UniProtKB/TrEMBL annotation:
The keyword Signal applies. This is YHYH protein. Keywords: Signal. Residues 1-22 form the signal peptide. It comes from the Bacteria. The keyword Transport does not apply. Residues 113-210 form the YHYH domain. InterPro entries: YHYH_dom (IPR025924).
Length: 261
């Protein structure tokens, strides 16, 4: 599997750059090295759920890869918008990362990566890293359960009602993004390995699944697979004990490892 991630300082969509990357910002392929991907004829139906004002998904000509790009700007309220923005809300319980950090006010907010159109579930698992590990349907980035070089609990007080914060780069979710999902089966986004992630419930049963692997994944039908079973992740239904988070209970969005390499 080939997968590349690159933060951008501005948005420019180059259809001819589907496979471009640099040695400085690429993410390894997990050691699989399999270039015999089978192409698909259309984008996965789940991409229809993404905020089209922020997220663009383009299928390669041979149907083997999907290029995904986002502005990084979520379509919901937060204390991290500038105060004169219509989406700004005051959140007295949140201690902002820095008072002059706001969505749309910094560099590196956009993100893009390329994934296999059909995730390779036969290769090695890969540990998540700091920075963007996926893109949510809102247009914002998904991060893992770490902050800087330490545990997320050190920064839990800066997370807004959406389980996200900004500082100073991309606005990103660490916890269950409640504007998108709150103990339901809603699609949350897609991760760097090309696997979709959903809320704490599964549409196939209408309940919290009990057969999840260490990544929160399992194989079942979803609301986007037209009756076919597909491997996908869920937010694991385990409370994250962050005493300084203003909106308890909290659930880590994704800690990994990735399975789709």
């Amino acid at each position: 599997m080939k997968i590349y991630f690159k933060p951008l300082t501005y948005i420019t969509i180059f259809a001819f750059a589907l496979f471009a990357c640099s040695s400085d910002d690429s993410v390894s392929d997990g050691g699989n090295g399999d270039d015999d991907d089978v192409g698909v004829t259309e984008l996965h139906a789940a991409f229809a759920a993404f905020n089209s004002d922020a997220v663009t998904a383009i299928l390669s000509d041979d149907g083997t890869e999907v290029y995904i790009e986002t502005t990084g700007f979520p379509n919901h309220t937060s204390i991290y918008w500038e105060t004169d923005n219509a989406l700004y809300i005051d959140e007295p319980g949140v201690t902002k990362t820095t008072q002059d950090t706001y969505i749309g006010g910094g560099q590196g907010e956009a993100a893009s990566f390329t994934v296999d159109a059909t995730p390779d579930l036969t290769g090695a698992t890969v540990t998540t890293q700091l920075n963007t590990i996926g893109i949510a349907v809102s247009g914002a980035s998904i991060f893992n359960d770490q902050e800087g070089m330490g545990d997320l609990d050190q920064a839990a007080g800066s997370l807004d009602w959406a389980g996200a914060h900004k500082g100073p780069g991309v606005y990103h979710y660490h916890l269950e993004p409640t504007p998108i999902t709150s103990d339901d089966d809603s699609l949350v986004g897609i991760l760097l390995d090309g696997v979709f992630i959903y809320g704490r419930q599964c549409s196939s049963t209408g309940t919290n699944p009990t057969d999840l692997d260490a990544s929160g994944g399992h194989t079942s039908t979803t609301q986007y697979t037209d009756g076919a079973e597909e491997y996908h992740y869920h937010i694991i239904n385990e409370v994250y004990p962050a005493g300084n988070y203003a909106y308890a209970p909290a659930y880590v969005l994704f800690a990994g490892p990735f399975q789709g390499y």
